[in-house]
Amino acid sequence: MPPATGGGLAETELRPRRGRCGPQATRAADRDVAARAAARNPKRPARGSRRFETASRWALLALVTLLSFATRFHRLDEPPHICWDETHFGKMGSYYINRTFFFDVHPPLGKMLIGLAGYLSGYDGTFLFQKPGDKYEHHSYMGMRGFCAFLGSWLVPFAYLTVLDLSKSLSAALLTAALLTFDTGCLTLSQYILLDPILMFFIMAAMLSMVKYNSCVDRPFSAPWWFWLSLTGVSLAGALGVKFVGLFIILQVGLNTIADLWYLFGDLSLSLVTVGKHLTARVLCLIVLPLALYTATFAVHFMVLSKSGPGDGFFSSAFQARLSGNNLHNASIPEHLAYGSVITVKNLQMAIGYLHSHRHLYPEGIGARQQQVTTYLHKDYNNLWIIKKHNTNSDPLDPSFPVEFVRHGDIIRLEHKETSRNLHSHYHEAPLTRKHYQVTGYGINGTGDSNDFWRIEVVNRKFGNRIKVLRSRIRLIHLVTGCVLGSSGKVLPKWGWEQLEVTCTPYLKETLNSIWNVEDHINPKLPNISLNVLQPSFPEILLESHMVMIWGNNGLKPKDNEFTSKPWHWPINYQGLRFSGVNDTDFRVYLLGNPVVWWLNLLSIALYLLSGSIIAIAMQRGTRVPAEVAGLSQVLLRGGGQVLLGWMLHYFPFFLMGRVLYFHHYFPAMLFSSMLTGILWDTLLRLCAWGLASWPLARGIHVAGILSLLLGTAYRLFALEPDLLPLFQYNYRQFSSPEDCLSSPEFLDHIRKVMLVIDAAVTNVEDLSSLEEYLVSLGRKHRTVGVKLSSFSTVGESLLYMLEKCLGPAFTPATRAAWSQLYGAVVQAMSRGWDGE
Amino acid sequence: MWGFLKRPVVVTADINLHLVALTGMGLLSRLWQLTYPRAVVFDEVYYGQYISFYMKRIFFLDDSGPPFGHMVLALGGYLGGFDGNFLWNRIGAEYSSNVPVWSLRLLPALAGALSVPMAYQIVLELHFSHCAAVGAALLMLIENALITQSRLMLLESVLIFFNLLAVLSYLKFFNCQKQSPFSLSWWFWLTLTGVACSCAVGIKYMGVFTYMLMLVVAAVHAWHLIGDQTLSNVRVFCHLLARAVALLVIPAVLYLLFFYVHLILLFRSGPHDQIMSSAFQASLEGGLARITQGQPLEVAFGSQVTLRSVFGKPVPCWLHSHQNTYPMIYENGRGSSHQQQVTCYPFKDVNNWWIVKDPRRHQLVVSSPLRPVRHGDMVQLVHGMTARSLNTHDVAAPMSPHSQEVSCYIDYNISMPAQNLWRLEIVNRRSDTEVWKTILSEVRFVHVNTSSVLKLSGAHLPDWGFRQLEIVGEKLSRGYHESTVWNVEEHRYGTSQEQREREWELNSPVQVDASRNLSFMARFSELQWRMLVLRSDDSEHKYSSSPLEWVTLDTNIAYWLHPRTSAQIHLLGNIVIWVSGSLALAIYMLLFLWYLLRRRRNVHDLPQDAWLRWVLVGALCAGGWAVNYLPFFLMEKTLFLYHYLPALTFQILLLPVVLQHISDHLCRSQLQRSVFSALVVAWYSSACHVSNTLRPLTYGDKSLSPEELKALRWKDSWDILIRKH
């Protein structure tokens, strides 16, 4: 009887493999498991069959990988237009090819890889990537999509191997692989030019290599141990290099490492020197190596992007001087400020601009009716100011005067070059920020009053130091009121030409809004130096770009009155993301998880917490359990615990984030929860099987087989023949997509019926004729709704396929023949219903 | 039974004179000259207004914390017979004679005073020496920032009191557990832990951190209990159940009780009404209730209604229209339909009235019998004053061009037909045939032709739209958002057939009959929700500071300055205590780590019971510091130095414990021990000296000369006010 193969499955998996890293999940229960396996399997298989087993394991892995690749690459070229964020990341790939500088809130590795893939596949970087829906036409985009799909395809085998290592159970691994392969969300997300497949690839790679290296724990400092340890480090660098979300997996690996070291430290058989070696190895591979690689990606990033581009404005003046094409590039200006210098002053806060004034007055009723002072983002003659001494009005550029440098702590006057008015402040409230003072232009031809005096200070420098162009961060403190010149960043109304408000803030808090630097500097009496001398060093660039990225991330705030995705929406698959199909295009792509998979995951987490705490309490109460249950509990607590930790670390921090969130942020967590589902159900079913041991053991395992079949077949059905979809219209409801149909209760009911028929056939395999009448009528029913006979063979094919996948090596050709014979008999009986009447 | 006749009745009292003396000193330091200064000091201006609201029974909404804290302060006002008549508008304003300053400041001062003996008790219950316990109490006594904060109408000292009470009662309970579980005192202390925790949460949301800490410690102890195999399963279950009831159920019930009392006390409408929903407002006396009393409940075809946006952001407003049309061409060159404007208007106005019309009939009055409007019905909304109907079409809205324009339809006869059918969806319906109810129903209007929904976009229209808020039609597929939800606020059945008559009717007030009540849970959940989501954008303050500045006391807050002299009150800590507290914490962490690592290698420096004590102290004191301090790094609101005080008290508790540990375990000889004790005494006297030096800034009772003030400015970042003459 074919289905009895389930029993054999359990035994083959639990045997420790020789010549590779030993099992990791249960160091203590290890011996028990081995003993148990030996006890149940008294005749150890011959060497030949072991070789066969290894081969079949590899074959299974290959199969999983192949299936994953097949689904991800299937119709990858469609739709041939920009989908969703491809418009950003494709564009950024082009920037790398064109070597123009840009700004993004994520670290550069992901986009660099996309750019590389595009470059290698012959994309020339000329496509504009303007908005979603634009057609690619002759531009080569398949290289970039193919690269993302390639990395996305590896998620399934990685998850498969991770679960296999954690649970030592093929069926758990297969269930996980099936969940991920057939999840529409993972599928969709892997098919486009996005950062997510790259990020998830590195996250899963880190997880896999961490688990692998954990299982090498009995052979420390061996080659595989070093290999997996350093691979973990490399993957961590990759994950962090793509998005800052990579920090979560770093946290997980960190926690795991601390626990690991703690265990080693408590092992009194190890000398302190050995423990020290362990510590050093981890510091090297998990801290030094990733940091070096991460820094290297930035080095490459800055090296490749050497031309001025759209990202310049986000960075400081000194940084811009690096970029060819920028007006600061190769410029030469005097280095130290002196009295009489003509300068422009730029705010250090991003996107505020230059200190500016013009011949327009503040309108009636808004402070004093004096000349406006604003900040302005563009370069213009009205941005020029002259530094003068506060007490004399003589022209310092007179050649008879010696050059006098401006120093930290000096009292100065800033005269607007075009209008000859002084920068001025007084006790009037600022136009928009009522708690601050108004800043105006005042005086005639440079003669004003004591409210025009400002003390110039350099942040974190000593008194008496000279002030450098570009590099010095300066503060202007109003002498009379003691307030600090700053920009609030608020846009003035029309009377202020929609430039930004400048205020003098009485709150002496250090914010970038009140810190400035000098950008242009003209002084004929001073020698010019090339700005290349002032170029920031690499660590400075690195620091600055991180500050800008963090600022950018914080700036992505949701607005009121906007629909935003909330973290609690995600696990319940509340709302998807529209990838394509805004403007009635032919292809509509919608990112939505497969509800069966997602809700099963959700259920599994609840079930895991329940069963986990029951087991933990039972153990704490000292309940005695048989070795078999103890082993399974260990798998559940340790293996499952690790995966659950991964899910929590990749999910809960989003609740604390203030930035705009999207549905796709959940996918790394979803990978972990799918792995948990695999481990949980397999272990629970095994526990059930053990509990029902008085019945035929196969019974429990049977349930496991049926369940995974159920999930898998459901999907194979439509992957093989999409035309089948319209046939499943229950209650006259039209399903717009396979997802809708598959999640409908009617469909699940149908699947259950199909399985019942197959089950009945299996049970009555000796006497199929007793079912004959039922099957004939069933056939008639199917004909009346318009099912083609050939569709049955599709179902049969997918059934055989799933059996093969789940049973692996146990699915011998003989079994296959038996199954197809059985299914053939069923279909034959049903087809009589067609011919009848 | 008559035993007491046979034996003498003896009362033996144990009086711990330490405790009495500490309490006395605590009371003296906190209550001395409590009414000075007789002026509004710093945040009293903020809490005072709420005390006035309580006295006048006017409803208010404050997002800074649950109502229990405000109620405690108001209790002081009640005891002093305060009538609430004082204008809290300026720091430094002199109190009028009707303000009972002493009783208003009494409760926080008592809480601050009682913290001193409680510190003593806690260290004793942790099984450290008397000496250490007295030390902890004395440090609390002379800590200037704690004194300042206790002597005013502020909540921190009350919060600290309940935090310490929670720790103390848990320790008492924990010590009872070993000797006599389920005894009377066991139950008492267990329950008191729960009560103190919920009071702490009720004072300020910050109390949640201490509550969480207590829950974690209790959970760890319960976990050990589960592992104790000498107990039967039933007994373990009873233990767990008792803890769950005392630490989870009782606090939850008490928290609800605070709100219950709050809502019972505040029954009059007030200035914060606008933030709340119409239903909530209608449940208050006066305000909206005066208008809505007696309105018919069910909206019928022919009803005259005003529609209020449920979202209420940026301001609460009503659906509005007026004679003016959209400009033919906008500033940016786009065109409009040039039909009548529809906006959202934040003031009551006759133009806010709309008539619900049945599309199949022509009449604008209610028919008899009434035909109520139900979920899913098709309606037209006719603007009362202009008799044009609400319309939307595929024309870009003025400010949000991705959405559709909403207008009142004017037929220009240019092949732009009216699209004025809307389907009514009741969002909070219980059944699919529910009737549209005044105030209670939250509804959406889905446009029949384009399936877009009527939405408040939040943008302000320019001058041509009189700066009113923009209304748009947004595609239904974008998901649910509160800005698409409306409710009927004012309602009457229209009876006038003629337009002129109708205009007169709209201008007349609605008739009156009975009031409508909302259940407590509905009011509680709304109030709680609003408190959590309300964001005040007042982000800058002269004395705001960042958490990093607190540990080293790099900042202070000037609370009050005498109007003429230079007497002033500052929130300024005793820097010796702050620095040594942080040092003690660092030493504790290092020693703990050291012992932990050594134990892992099987080297036991401390005997088992000393080690357990050491761990428990760390969990409660270092843990208490961490949970009350670290979360501030994640908060985006404006922070002040006084936020650090709860964390500081835990540091103060840790300080003598660490000193005793050093003396007991690290000083090897008697000589070392004596030297160390001498050092401790010297250190304590320096703390006393600092405390005494800073005393004028703490009590504000002495006017110092500018030189003396300058001499007190030990750190450049301290802002001590010096008058220029």
Automatic annotation (TrEMBL), chain A:
Residue ranges of domain MIR in the record: 334-390, 403-459, 464-521
InterPro entries associated with the record: ArnT-like_N, Globin, Globin-like_sf, Globin/Proto, MIR_dom_sf, MIR_motif, PMT-like, PMT_4TMC
Compartments, record wording: Cytoplasm, Cytosol; Endoplasmic reticulum membrane; Mitochondrion matrix
PROSITE patterns in the record: GLOBIN, MIR
Residues in the signal sequence: none
All residue ranges annotated as the Globin domain in the record: 680-835
Gene Ontology terms for molecular function: dolichyl-phosphate-mannose-protein mannosyltransferase activity; heme binding; metal ion binding; oxidoreductase activity; oxygen binding
Membrane topology: Multi-pass membrane protein
Subunit (UniProt): Monomer. Homodimer and homotetramer; disulfide-linked. Mainly monomeric but also detected as part of homodimers and homotetramers. Interacts with 14-3-3 proteins; regulates the phosphorylation of NGB. Could interact (ferrous form) with G-alpha(i) proteins (GTP-bound form).
Protein family membership: Belongs to the globin family. Belongs to the glycosyltransferase 39 family.
UniProt protein name: Neuroglobin
Encoding gene per record: POMT2
From TrEMBL, chain B:
Biochemical pathway: Protein modification; protein glycosylation
Keyword annotations: Endoplasmic reticulum, Glycosyltransferase, Membrane, Repeat, Transferase, Transmembrane, Transmembrane helix
Cleaved signal peptide residues: none
Catalytic activity: a di-trans,poly-cis-dolichyl beta-D-mannosyl phosphate + L-threonyl-[protein] = 3-O-(alpha-D-mannosyl)-L-threonyl-[protein] + a di-trans,poly-cis-dolichyl phosphate + H(+); a di-trans,poly-cis-dolichyl beta-D-mannosyl phosphate + L-seryl-[protein] = 3-O-(alpha-D-mannosyl)-L-seryl-[protein] + a di-trans,poly-cis-dolichyl phosphate + H(+)
Keyword Glycosyltransferase in record: yes
Topology in the lipid bilayer: Multi-pass membrane protein
Keyword Transferase on entry: yes
Entry-linked Pfam families: MIR, PMT, PMT_4TMC
Annotated family: Belongs to the glycosyltransferase 39 family.
Protein's UniProt name: Dolichyl-phosphate-mannose--protein mannosyltransferase
Organism: Callithrix jacchus (White-tufted-ear marmoset)
Lineage start: Eukaryota, Metazoa, Chordata, Craniata, Vertebrata
Gene: POMT1
